[in-house]
Amino acid sequence: MWVITLISAVCLLASPSLAGIKDLSSHFSDPKPDPRGFEADGTVDIESLPLEYHKENTVTNDLFDGFEDEDYIDFDKILAAGSDDYIEGDEVDEIATPAPDIDIFAEPSDPKIRRARLLRLFHGRSRLQRLNMVNGRFGFNLYRSLRNNVNQTDNILLAPAGISIAMGMMSLGARSETHDQIYKVLGFAEFVNASHHYDNTTVHKLFRKLTHRLFRRNFGYTLRSVNDVYVKNSISVKDTFRAETKNYYFAEPQSVDFRDPAFLAKANQRIQKLTKGLIREPLKSVDPNMVLMLLNYLYFKGTWEQKFPKEMTHYRNFRVNEKTNVRVPMMTNKGNYLAAADHELDCDVLQLPYTGNISMLIALPRKLTGMRSLEQEISPTVVNKWLKNMTNRTREIVLPRFKLEQNYDLIENLKKMGLTGVFEETADFSGMTSERVSMNWLKHQGIITVNEEGTEAAALTQVGFMPLSSQIRFVVDHPFLFLIYEHRTDCLVFMGRVANPSQS
Q1: From CA 493, how far away is CA 489, in angstroms rounded?
Q2: What would the pLDDT profile of 350-408 be if each residue is shown by its tens digit?
Q3: In angstroms, what is the C-alpha Rg of the chain?
Q4: How far apart are CA 489 and CA 222, in angstroms?
Q5: Are the C-beta atoms of residues 414 and 368 closer than 8 Å to each other?
Q6: Listed residue (300, 122, 95, 127) closest to 210, CA to CA
Q7: How confident is the model over 80-110, as pLDDT tens digits?
């Protein structure tokens, strides 16, 4: 039995001085075009490839041959070539209408009600937006599982999009019950079942499209996703898996010797370069018996539309709980901001926009004891409700400057969510290799810095929900949740909790 290691989402929000998106073709060693479609027998339909995939690529076998600031995927050329794969995700398919006798406001643990809520959200949304809603719901569920394992005063940082991308890539090699379980826990199955136009490959096509949509240089922010796949040199990877990971996730499996110390050094050096030095040695050691390692990195750099004047930053008290206050630098700004009040969840919500249709949402419980309820109830439905009910007016904003560094092993959390099969000896990854393999490690690491410049690193009801039109000050001086949300695709890129901004 071989062992798979998955380092999911080494996620970064980096300082405003950092920039650059990797030219994904520089990581590939095969100058032949990427496969774009597979026939029933597993053969590749080369004639169906769009024009941009017939060009020659720069070839490298160096693990840490990287990128520079000017290395971007030229999506303008992709669009000019008329790639229908890019446009497909904007389609709005007909979906089933929830039965009129279902009370969608009842207990959400009922699967029929959860599905009804999801279908209501799906109405009028594109394929890509629907998949991101599913990814967001998985992210919130994973957050809740993780929250139960840490102290109330601990900070939390997750990159739901990165974890979903990594698990989507993993599912390419899964078969039978293993594949079905991944799709069920991640929510991909509910997405596929929402329309007769969808099948399992729709998920992978849309993750490819998500790369197209998010990771461009002309949106005003920098967001990069990088996937690496390393395979034990004695293991034969199936051609279909190799081609599909390259096609959908821009990651071609590379043969390595996990026993060779040089691999660890080179892999860490590559990660350090990809993250501009923010993560230096995420791989402390490698099991020599490992068969496969998948890594996903998310990197974000955003600049506030309205920067906080540095001269307005002063040390103030932040209430960690009823007994503890900490003195932290609090940024202050005054301007027009969108905000809302959620009386049902007893919290206030502020939207801090970055340049380029991406923003940070701050959800601040009104009571120090209100965090638990907010964490329990937050969902794509709730976020959608917030966004639809915000009002714009002049406000004074007070927000702590903070930096978070978090590192998690998520296996136990995913097991509690029902994803058990991938970690057992009976796991079926026969779509990846003829060897018997299972996963034994899933690591998630992230860094976020928020400062004066920016950040480094359909609605069900309006009952109990009113616009925050009368509040003129928004003071974030006690624990809060934050979401980094891309509005074109409805993508929840990062989320977390700041319980104590004086701790990283």
Answers
A1: 10
A2: 999 988 888 999 999 999 989 999 999 999 989 999 999 998 888 899 999 888 877 78
A3: 22
A4: 16
A5: no
A6: 127
A7: 555 544 455 677 877 777 666 655 555 566 7
Question: Does any domain span residue 503?
Answer: no
> In this structure, is residue 259 part of a structural domain?
yes
Amino acid at 194: A
CA distance 144 to 377: 10
Of 225, 465, 258, 493, which is closest to residue 345 (Cα–Cα)? 465
Q: In Å, how far are 224, 360, 447 from 13, measured between CA atoms? A: 10, 12, 6
CA distance 3 to 150: 28
- Quote the domain boundaries for residue 382: 310-403+458-498
**Structure tokens belonging to residue 90:** 């904007």
| Residue 140 sits in the same domain as residue 10 | yes
Helix (H) or strand (E) holding 113: helix 111-122
Look at the pTM and tell me if it is higher than 0.85: no
Residues 227 and 318 in one domain: no
Q: Where would I find the H helices in 280-433?
A: 371-377, 380-388, 411-416
Collect all residues with Cβ–Cβ distance below 8 Å to 423 and sequence separation of at least 6: 411, 415, 438, 439, 440
